[in-house]
Amino acid sequence: MSLALSARFARRELRGGLRAFRIFLACLALGVAAISAVGTVRAAIEGGLEREGAALLGGDAEMEFTYRFATPEERAWMEDTASRVSEIADFRSMAVVDRDGTTERGLTQVKAVDGAYPLLGTPELDPAMPLAQALAGDGTRPGAVMDPILTDRLALSPGDTFRMGEQEFILMAALVREPDNASGGFGLGPRTIVLRADLEGSGLLEPGTLFSSKYRLDLPPDADLAALEDEAEATFATSGLRWTDARNGAPGVSEFVERLGAFLILVGLSGLAVGGVGVSAAVRAYLATKTSTIATLRTLGADRRTIFQTYFLQIGALSLLGIALGLVIGALVPLLLSPLIEAQLPVPARFTIYPGPLSEAALYGALTAFLFTLLPLARAEDIRAATLFRDALSAGRLLPRPRYLAALGAGLALLLGSAAWFSGNLWLTLWTAGGICGALLLLALAALAIRWLARALTPWARGRPALRWALSAISGPREGAASVVLSLGLGLSVLAAVGQIDGNLRNAIAGNLPDVAPSYFLVDIQKDQMQAVADRLETGHEVSRIDSAPMLRGIITRINGRPAREVAGDHWLIQGDRGITYSGPLPERSRLTEGTWWGEDYDGPPLISVADEEAREIGLQIGDTMTINILGRDIEATIASFREVDFSTAGMGFTLAMNPGAVSAAPHSFLATVYAEPEAEAAILRDIGTAFPNVTLIRVRDAIERVADLLSGLAAATSYGALATLLTGFLVLIGAAASGVGARTFEAAVLKTLGAPRRRILASFALRAAILGLAAGVVALASGIAGGWAVSRFILDTDFAVIWPSALIIVTGGIGATLLAGLAYAWAPLAARPARILRAND
């Protein structure tokens, strides 16, 4: 028979309406909508960053140098290339306020600008005034503008004065909006803007101070950004220059959005997998109602291929409808909510219809529908005509024919390949797929175990009719235990894993670190101040420990004579500048894992010691060479040893350490960590801040809280994706409950005929739902704990402990969800008249 005839049969079958496919369509549409919505929001942010790249950057291009200003040659190149150049120095400092005999201090991220700033955009100040007027001050003191968060913390109002270093400033206005804030990256303190010229004599920009200089370029309209980047990097190849331009004005934000979006799409694929379980169950339930139709067609001469094509085309058409519904929802919801989303974003977004994310979601939806509908369709064609009038699908072979297995394998490979391509992370995709497959396998085995256990426990439930009926129903094939455990269990597994990861991150940040972390980091300590700072801390305060080390910053440019990126790829060690220290003797609490230390009296060619874990990740070996650019000068050093460096304590740790003769002559400052009791922290801040105004004190607890806020936002976004997965699982659960109405109606009719009261029948329905929910919750909890442990141990590298409140919520949620779905579909069977039901089944 021809494909056209199969299409005619499929069209006639669809005339019966879509009532049997409501759950099918809802599951598919919800999964596609979630993925397309995430992709649309990501594309909107990327579109906004691309459109506003120059404004976000503060110019058409930016040249950044680490802890130095541009040389005359570099500045001359900028002046020849650009029509205007603006110089900025960015660093941390302490804002100090003296009031009524007390002193208040706050950490601030300072932007020291020139008269040309900003090249693009306009800062928004309160009270409103031009930035140049605000920075001019009141004629006796230089002016400053400050983030409202810091003005509130220090109780400052326009007209009040404060100090930074040795310089006094007058606050002229609050900085409501900073036009180029998206390019600034992560800062530990709120922003303060002053003129760089007003910092002369403040002691804040001394040689060795930790700061970065940024030069914004206003280029001609016809400038070729790519060509200029190549020219700048070739001209100043050994200067440590970092180039950014309007093609990606906020690279940190763009990269974070891309990675978060990719991760959330993989979470969305978990939701589609849950929906796929519902799709498969819906197709199987539908085919079970079509056994008489299939039998008639087979009797009239229809072969297996015709039967398969008929229902494959029908399910395919419905899949396209579900995908289309999901795409419409996923595209329109971000557009409708765009004002609310934009209000929460720190960067501009351009909301419109983006074909790319919608095509990606449609591909995922189509492949998921194909994978989860092929198995029940393939099994249906193997049933003999004589058995189709009985429980046809239960009697078929467990696995389909080899050609269908090959098609399933090809579809799965295409799905994984597409996910890896779109997310840009092969390993994350494979780990996600492995986790989903592992959870599905575990849940499928759990469903079989539940049926076996229910069958084994049924004889023990004598004298408890409701429990006995519940166990008997669960052990049978019609109750849909597999669908319930698979769908709800997978959704709960994702949510449980997210809960365990989030809880352990919070424990690591808020619980474990304060026991071992220092109270303060002291930065920008000058060489001649280090001993005085240590003496003051040791004699005047309850300090248990002080660690100090010289501090330089450098960029790894070459490894074994080759560009560093060719050797190390995208490893974080070569991205941006890294902290470097030097020491003659091996520092205390340092342990070599390989190689030898150079010794206190070494006076030979430059040697370097690298953190063991990072060195092995890159593939370094003892004897390799590494070129580091420090303050524009390239230093080639030979790797002499690997060291164990533990960053988990939030203490002092350097991935790179060199012999003193290699770098000690370069301008640099010292870094110190102070360990003290919490009640002594205020006195330390007050004393050191007063005695050494140029020294910046960073409270570790504040930095940890800032990181915790960022992680909380990431956990919240992931939780939303997991909740979408759980909602899909609940829909599948409803579908399973709805598909079992007929069986429960017949069961209730028989029990009522035998004299069972309605309340006992209802108790039986509730018990079976609670048992299945408990099973799904327990298995999901085991999967979630295993997934949370794996992520915490191998990706986040943190300790792991089960978060029991989250775990109990998961189990309770599983019981509650199945109870709600089961009871919602219990009233109709209880209300049906036994005589009519039994007569219809005679």
TrEMBL record:
It comes from Marinibacterium profundimaris. One of its GO terms (cellular component) is plasma membrane. The chain crosses the membrane at residues 260-287, 308-341, 361-380, 404-422, 428-454, 481-499, 720-744, 765-791, 803-828. Its main location: membrane. PANTHER family: INNER MEMBRANE PROTEIN (PTHR30287:SF1), MEMBRANE COMPONENT OF PREDICTED ABC SUPERFAMILY METABOLITE UPTAKE TRANSPORTER (PTHR30287). Keywords: Cell membrane, Membrane, Transmembrane, Transmembrane helix. It is found in: Cell membrane. Residues 266-379, 723-828 form the ABC3 transporter permease C-terminal domain. This is Drug:proton antiporter. Pfam families: FtsX. It is a multi-pass membrane protein.
